[in-house]
Design brief:
There is one protein chain. The chain is an alpha/beta fold and 355 residues long. 47% of the residues lie in helices and 15% in strands. The protein is built from 16 helices and 13 strands. The strands form two sheets. A seven-stranded parallel β-sheet has the order 3-2-1-4-5-6-7, sandwiched between helices. The relative contact order is 0.13.
């Protein structure tokens, strides 16, 4: 079996690490990096730390508007598909790289397998929601992390090829956590102890960074927390702060984006995580760290229903109240919503069975 896998962004690198290993035990994988995330902190570091094979091709698309970025990926991937003629196109998650890979393959009648299928925020204003819906509707195999994802697909009439595999992120976190504990030096670098109280923060979505008032409100909320704030800052957020001339208070410690092992170590020991990332909400849950999500909806509804995640609007008072609540009302239960860490094996077996 020959699989063409497409990755382009941080969450996809993490998911690809266990699955690429599982594929290559008995099959051929051709790995394409679209270049959607391209600087070292957001890309190459993950390949090194997670032992992901070097991409066979890097399209080097870089940052553009959604239309141009997706179009350049689509054109490049079509050429590669015609050259390689894989049995499967494998795509991950909900980025422009995901949609481009699925579209290019579907147009050439090459079967599409979608990892992390069936997620829905039901907010079509989010580009990720559009990407995941369209990808699901042209996929031949849909690998769902949970029963909720299966039910979402059934509501849209998608039943064939739908398989619950558990979440591939469980595979990744289970492998990375002991390595992070043994290898990460992030706490020493920051001169804090893992037992110290601190909030880990990532904010990068356009809805939170492209509007001065919204970003200012979030930064104001962070500045008034009664604990240090460690903020590995996405390039988009850094650029927005500079563009708007917004000041970062001394209690907010801005650092460069972290590699995966350092981020796992940072979130594991954090008092709480404040984020707008889809992937980090789930990673926080898997690491048993309370999460505050600066969004009005989430695709990871289980994390909210179980009390481990709180949705808040970008209002300082709401952020502060949610952090206080998360700290004082940490749930006693931690259900295994996302499977047993064997998603990669199930995904490969399903592709073999349909090949």
């Amino acid at each position: 079996m020959r699989v063409l896998s497409v990755v382009g962004a941080r969450p996809q690198f993490i998911k690809a690490a266990p699955l690429s290993t599982a594929i290559r035990r008995d099959h051929d994988e051709f790995l394409v990096h679209t270049g959607q995330h391209y600087d070292d902190d957001m890309s190459a570091t993950f390949f090194r730390q997670l032992n992901i094979p070097e991409p066979d091709v890097n399209l080097g698309v870089g940052s553009h508007g959604h239309g141009k970025q997706t179009a350049e990926m689509l054109a490049g991937l079509e050429t590669i598909l015609l050259q390689t003629q894989p049995d499967w196109m494998l795509v991950y998650g909900d980025t422009n790289s995901t949609l481009a890979g699925a579209l290019a393959a579907a147009k050439l009648n090459i079967p599409v397998a979608h990892v992390e299928a069936g997620l829905r925020s039901y907010n079509r204003a989010m580009p990720e929601e559009v990407n995941r819906v369209l990808t699901d509707h042209i996929s031949n195999l849909l690998f769902c992390p949970t029963q909720v994802a299966v039910d979402n697909l059934a509501k849209e009439g998608i039943i064939d090829g739908v398989i619950i595999t558990g979440d591939i992120m469980v595979d990744a976190v289970r492998h990375a956590r002991p390595r992070a504990e043994a290898e990460s030096t992030i706490h020493q670098q920051l001169s804090i102890a893992p037992t110290d109280a601190y909030a880990a923060v990532t904010i990068h979505r356009p809805a939170n960074t492209d509007d001065k008032t919204t970003l200012s409100a979030i930064m104001n909320g962070l500045a008034h927390l009664d604990m240090p704030v460690i903020f590995p800052m996405h390039p988009r957020t850094k650029h927005a702060l500079e563009k708007f001339g917004l000041e970062v208070k001394d209690s907010v410690h801005v650092i460069s984006p972290l590699g995966y092992l350092d981020m796992v170590a940072l979130v594991t020991s954090a008092t709480c995580l404040i984020t707008d990332s889809g992937g980090l909400q789930k990673e926080a849950y898997l690491l048993e760290t309370p999460c505050i999500t600066v969004r009005t909806e989430t695709e990871w509804v289980e994390t909210v229903e179980s009390g481990w995640n709180r949705l808040v609007e970008p209002i300082p008072e709401a952020i502060l109240a949610a952090v206080q609540d998360a700290i004082t009302a940490k749930p006693a239960e931690h259900p295994a919503f996302y499977g047993d860490g064997n998603a990669a094996i199930r995904i490969v077996q399903a592709m073999e069975a349909r090949n």
